[in-house]
Amino acid sequence: MAKLGAVQSPGYPFPPANPAGNELPPRRKLILDTIREADAPMQPREIASELHLHLNTIRDHLAALVEAGLLIRKTVPHAGRGRPAIAYMTPPGDTDTPDRRTSNALIVMLLDHLDETSPLPEVEARRMGEKMGRYLATTLNSERPLYLELLRLAQDWGFDASWHSSSNTLTLGSCPLGLEDKIRCNLLSEIHAGVLRGVVEGTGHSLDDCKTVSREDGTSCVQFLPKAFTNVV
């Protein structure tokens, strides 16, 4: 597989060296505040119309806010025919803190390390996730249905997660890191899929009865659960 380039300037979301570094340019802060106050994810054209700014200007600022970890992209249905549109929202919890950005930076470093050192990085990422999932299984509330505990875990990670009872499917929506690099996205998706598998296995359920799907864009992965998993852990 293609390898990532040199990592001298990887764009890791490190916290600024001083508090003043947290200040955003006025126009960028205005865009961020507008999205924060919206009732639903906003598309670039909607933001441009509301703020009376050029669409290209909006797109430049949105890209910078995503890179900084202050916004995430979300696929939304198109108003008419055509491909789904891209909208922007603040991460669940909207925790723009140095601790969160440092944590995100470490995750990105881990993804890069896997890609650079492992002959099978996707397999290794899935195994790492499964190991973490087996540990998390020991922390679950045994009096609640497994799907509710999985949903809680996903939301704690920062995913736009939802449970679909008609198909017994747990969907992890927008990736909390808002990554753009496809290699990083794919590896992160494999880790998350592995975590879900590890939780299922760690609670005594058979992996033969479930299915995990890691999507190529890394923005989501899906855990399909049999009806039995709606029972308590």
UniProtKB/TrEMBL annotation:
Full protein name? HTH iclR-type domain-containing protein
Superkingdom: Bacteria
Q: Where in the numbering of this chain does the HTH iclR-type domain appear?
A: 31-71
Region of interest (Disordered), residue spans? 1-25
UniProt-listed Gene3D superfamilies: Winged helix-like DNA-binding domain superfamily/Winged helix DNA-binding domain (1.10.10.10)
Q: Which species is the source of this protein?
A: Lawsonella clevelandensis
Q: Which InterPro entries match?
A: Tscrpt_reg_IclR_N, WH-like_DNA-bd_sf, WH_DNA-bd_sf
